[in-house]
Amino acid sequence: MQRYRAYGASSGEEEEEFQGTQEALETQEEEPVVHLEAMDDDLCQTDGKPSPPPPSSESKSVGKPPGGAAGTAVKYSLFTWFAVLALLGVWSSVAVVYFDIVDYDGVMARARDFRANFTQVLQGKLSAYDADGDGDFDAEDAKVLLGLKEEPAPPKTPEEKAETHGKQATDGGAAQRSQGEESAGTTEDSTTMSDAESDLDSEIQAAVPLPAFVEEDFVADDPREEVEHLQARDADAIDTSGVSVEAESSSRSSVVESAREVTSSKLTREQESQMEVERPSEAETGSAASQTTAEKRSEAVEAQTKTPKKKKAKLLNKLDRSIKADLDAAEKLRKKGKLEAALKSFEALVRQHPLSPRARYGQAQAEDDLAEKRRSNDMLLKAVASYRDAAELPDAAPDLVRAALARRAERQQFLGRTRGAVTTLERLVQIFPDDVSPKNDLGVAFLLLGDNKSAKKVYEEVLAAAPANGFAKVHYGFILKSENKIAESIPYLKEGLESGEPGTDDGRFYFHLGDALQRMGDQSAYHWYRLGHERGHFASVWQRSLYNVDGLKAQPWWTPEETGYTLLVEALERNWESIRDEALAVMDRQTGHFVPEEENLREKGEWGQYTLWQQGKKSSTSCQAVPKTCALLEKFPEATGCKRGQIKFSAMQPGTHVWPHTGPTNCRLRMHLGLVVPREGCRIRCTDSSRTWEEGKVLIFDDSFEHEVWQDAASFRLVFIVDVWHPQLTAQQRRTLGAI
Q1: Residue 154 belongs to what H/E stretch?
Q2: pLDDT given at position 592
Q3: Percent of the chain with pLDDT over 70
């Protein structure tokens, strides 16, 4: 109306014009053809009233086409302003969306929260009118209350259900039992779905965790810093097999051409069904224990899924709350992946508010994300420093201090700076002495450094404060087993795995528990191996290596033709006598060159080894004593270049027994050349098949499968061990796979 007044028309004239226009539009709908003169007459008479005085010349000239009538001018003006308003609405919507004027995510979250809370309140108040016993008030309950439907019978007790089910099973036979099982399965599925829906509602209101950091393809920046502790660079070096293991994260995998190297992951193997043949008494021995353990694990998983909602971390102090809008804007850029812009925003906030912990923490997160994007260790080091700065600022919120220091320790471990991570975690434990989580992480860091004594002390403190902590139990059990306290380690490993807590479902713990049980003569070891296989940690019950490449052919015994290394086999068998003579000369001159086996694999006896190549590196000192043997092998890079294997002499004395064990990786095959073999009493078992050595002949097997050795002869046995790359590995994979 104001726009009409702007053109000089009074309020009375506006009303008359509007009424006249409405009647003209109605007339047009009834009569398709109307002359302009008739339209003028209609406009001049409204309900018998005289027509209003003609508008001024200024009013006529605006919005009126040449030669047109007054009614046409008014109609055209209405359409024009309708179009203008529509365009304004469209552009306003575009502006709202483009400039993020409205936080739609927040609005939707509040709407869901309101819906969930309102539903709970409403159902709580109406539960008194629940007539059908389904736990809520709905249309069926209303029908019962209004008399439109009979009230359902009360639900049966579990005893009545069991009795009814038993009668049906007796009368109906196997077919009715099947139907009962199917209906039970349906009930369980519906229960699971309802639980999942309730969990979804909980997650909507829960605090959003910090984004996970993808750790692929980083390389430690300065290996000289930890040169005295090379084992600290191995992120997963918790192993007592006596071999060094590579740094691989359980949360990531590195793609190498068409094959994928995995640690404790699901593998597809050829002939797997044949390899999973169990010992005759295993299924009967461990069936009861298997059922009990499965029930315990199921209960643990159900308890985990019903954990209460996480409390939202409080990261802001008083200063941070005063600049919350700027912090939120910078954080929104980071979450949208605009990392460079986010980093600039946080850096500007740090310059303006140098005492803001949240601004400094946001800067660290942006640097962390940018390091991942650029694959830059330099940027990651900046993030490590920024996390420290954020935690050390005065009045920093406790949740922010905890998050910053925990992330800093994790990044330090990733960079291979495990000693720095230990210092950070010790600081975190000092600030939060009642928090078990940083203590558990500190124990792992000590294990990575090879400091089992300090790790043991940490886990003893954790178990004293939290006796049921599954994470501490499996690690404490592992430490006890590494100390050869086999019987003591078993309950800790078993209870830790049964707890189902995060961090316990690891192939190494299944591996060591099964190994401990085997050494105690307990056949339930294969129950745990089977569980490990079902959880995706082992390729099969027999093949239990942990550092694998997916898709490689898997079988316990190989022929030279299957390997493709026939030239190497022929060279070894053709020169076996000269190889034997050099080995015997070393033994005769100084038997101390045969170092006792240090992998804790012997139950009894003496077993010595003399190594020429280890992890693809030649031992020049050792080769000086056996020059012909080393010269021969240097012609075969599939052996000397095998970074995941060894080349060595193995001398085993009478009365020696080697426990059942597996190698660490499926990336190699192992050749045994017989040099000195007694006629009777020496044998090797791989899976469920045993063989014997012959002098001058090569045996080939995959040591990632379980194998065991007996030496019950009257004299020593001497073989030459040569590890070679698995023939299906590509040249690229052989170059890039880490050493073991």
Answers
A1: none
A2: 53
A3: 59
Whether pTM > 0.90 for this model: the answer is no
The Cα 148–Cα 142 span in angstroms is 8
Q: In what order do the strands lie in the sheet with 689-691?
A: 602-604, 656-661, 707-711, 682-686, 689-691
Beta carbons of 35 and 27 less than 8 angstroms apart = no
Q: Which helix (H) or strand (E) holds 690?
A: strand 689-691
CB 737 within 8 A of CB 261: yes
Alpha helical stretches, state H, 554-660: 560-563, 566-574, 576-589, 620-625, 627-633, 637-640
Mean pLDDT calculated for residue range 139-155 = 61
CB crowding 620-629: b at 16 or more within 10 Å, else e:
eebbebbeeb
- Pairwise CA distance, residues 113 & 722, whole Å: 65
The residue behind tokens 């919507």 is 93
Rounded distance between C-alpha atoms, residue 262 and residue 590, angstroms: 42
Question: What does the block give as tokens for 544?
Answer: 């239990």
Distance CA 48, CA 143 (A): 60
d(CA 665, CA 507): 13
| Phi, psi (degrees; rounded to nearest 5) at 651 | -115, 125
Q: What is the mean pLDDT of residues 444-463?
A: 96
Which residues partner with 547 through β-bridges?
263, 665
**Residue 84 pLDDT:** 83
Sequence-ordered list of residues with C-beta below 8 angstroms from that of 464, at least 6 positions apart, any chain? none
Amino acid at 580: R
Give the closest residue to 427 by CA, choosing from 401, 450, 454: 401
Residue 113 has a CB neighbour count (10 Å cut-off) of 13
What is the predicted pLDDT for the residue at 423?
A: 96
In single-letter form, the type of residue at position 23 comes to E
Please compute the mean of the pLDDT values over residues 362-384 and round it to a whole number: 96
H-helix segments, 415-501: 418-431, 436-448, 452-465, 470-482, 486-499
pLDDT for 645: 96
Q: Give the Cα separation of 519 and 708 in Å (integer).
A: 12
CA distance 538 to 523: 18
Three-state SS across 534-567? HCCCCCCCCECCCEEECCCCCCCEECHHHHCCHH
Give me the residue label for tokens 């090569």: 698
